[in-house]
Amino acid sequence: MRSLAPLGDRVLVKRAQKEVQTAAGIYLPTDSTKDPNEGTVVSVGPGERDVAGNLHATTLKAGDTVLLPEYGGTKVKIEDEEVFLFRESDILGKFE
User: Fold this and answer.
1) Which pTM does this prediction carry?
2) Cα dist from 78 to 1, 32, 71, whole Å
3) So what's the pLDDT on residue 1?
4) Which of 17, 43, 68, 84 is the most buried (most CB within 10 A)?
């Protein structure tokens, strides 16, 4: 099984599944629904180094649920699974 370890302050995120059914039970066509802006952190890089060489660790950890920007991230396909690579600063927030 292949795995990907992010470098620097990058975060590997798996987006949540698209909603295909409304609360009323109506099924939506999958091509008309937009990508959800929520995801689960799969893995994180060690952090970013500043000019003095000090390491600033990432504040996220694997398993965190995060709020993602509508656009952005690098799509990566690892064995039939689609994940996205974001910089930590691009992630909008963390759900508690």
Assistant:
1) 0.79
2) 9, 25, 20
3) 46
4) 68
